[in-house]
Amino acid sequence: MKNFNGKNLGAIYPFPHINLPIFPKEGEINQCQSKGFFYYNRSVVNRNLLASTLIPVAKGASYLILPLTVNMPELFDYYKNVYGENHTGNYDNLLFCNNKEYEFKSIELSLQTGNKIVSIVPYINNPYSYLDVEVYSTIQSKWNISQLTNKVAKQYLVKLSNFEKIIETNQLNFPLFVKGHFGSGGDYVVKANSIKDVKSPEKETFLIEENFPHDINFNIQTHISPEGEISYVSGSTQLIEEVVYIGNIIVLESTPYKIPNVVYDIVNEASQNVYKQGWYGLAGWDILYRKEDDKAILIDPNLRWNGATTFMILGKSIAQQTGKKYILQCSIISRKFQYVSEGMNQLKRFLNNGDLFINGGSYQDDKEGYFKLRIGITGNEVEELHDKKSFFEKILL
Predict the structure, then answer these.
(1) Is cis: bond before 175, omega within 30 of 0?
(2) Contact present, 40 and 140 (Cβ < 8 Å)
(3) Residue 76 to residues 83, 203, 349, 378: CA-CA distances in angstroms?
(4) I need a labelling partner for 252 at 20 to 30 A (CA). Which of 30, 129, 348, 356 fits?
(5) 73 lies in a domain?
């Protein structure tokens, strides 16, 4: 597996395309008939913030369709100055719209241009989607993970009417994890510490997964070309509280050979298997690893833009600028300043000296002034990263 050296969306999806990185909230779009459809559970500002992280690497998409709340020109100037136009392009491909327009706008552009739509979840029906929606829905589902590798936790597909019997028959021990088909950042995943906690995250049928005690929660990302060539993008350790995603610690000068061999083997096998089933593009693999017996399992395939993808692509550039070993990617909120430019001014010294990088931002809405930023904090020790995060939070909160 060679290293991926791409710098932008054009390298990830090397064909003219319309990129739609917006998770749907209930009521925003019409539900299609594909399997495992889901709505984004968390706040609109979190959803929009994730979409905004494609802007620093926007070059190569014919169009990048984004929410109005992420239209922050001062951030776009910052990205160009810090990351360069090889990553950003000149931003003539950005299209902003409100939450009720983005499905219509993307399909309209697809009809006008003939370009396919790359969407973050399979809710754009054929013939507009760049990949078959049914194929994508099947291999992306947490319920079908054993099709990608046999290195998985024990799973049981159950119904609300029989889950207690299955727990008793199989002598399952708590905690257990209850999972829907899809999800982002912990959506549709419930940690159950007792039978009382077992609730369906979607419908009557759901998945129960046994707990796997572990030391490290990896997110390893690969790129699969249309011809089936697999490249290693980067690796990180994930910060999780219960089942909610908090951020990633990315090793800026990482190679696939620095991760445990058993993790590398799972990544390689799963990447090959999704391609065999008709999928290509960006893939993030959530893998739990236990040092004691050198065992690992795949817990989630993320066949889409992941939370850490942008900083992974920017990692080489950031490492060259700073000489630092790690970058902590996380989100930070400000209620102290009305505009993002005011917050950036307070952080100016740290932005200039390479302690802090920004790769996304969204205002809460048109009425309230506060905003969220997706940031990367550099350092050579993990403890240093967390200390800096607390410091920056005090500046903005």
Answers:
(1) yes
(2) no
(3) 10, 41, 19, 21
(4) 348
(5) yes
Q: Let me know if residue 311 belongs to a domain.
A: no
In this structure, the answer to whether residues 222 and 348 fall within a common structural domain is no
Considering the domain architecture, whether residues 7 and 35 belong to the same structural domain is answered as yes
Alpha-carbon dihedral 52, 330, 207, 260, rounded to 10 degrees: 120
**Any bridge partners for residue 287, and if so which?**
218, 298
* Inter-axis angle of helices 309-322 and 73-83, nearest 10: 50
392/390 Cα distance (integer angstroms): 6
Q: How many helices (H) and strands (E) does the chain have?
A: 12, 17
Is the Cβ–Cβ distance between 183 and 170 less than 8 Å? Answer: no
Same domain membership, residue 100 and residue 42: yes
366 has pLDDT over 60: no
Could you read off the pLDDT of 98-128 as tens digits, one per residue? 988 998 899 999 999 999 999 887 666 768 8
Residue 335, number of CB atoms within 10 A of its CB:
12
d(CA 137, CA 343): 40
Place of tokens 């959803």: 47
In a domain, 308, yes or no: no
CA pseudo-torsion sign 147, 279, 243, 4: positive
Of 197, 151, 152, residue with least CA distance to 178: 197
Task: Give mean pLDDT, residues 230-238.
Answer: 92
Alpha-helix residue ranges (DSSP H) falling in 132-221: 133-140, 163-169
pLDDT in tens, 319-365: 999 999 999 999 999 988 888 999 999 999 999 999 999 999 999 87
Domain that holds residue 273: 141-149+213-302
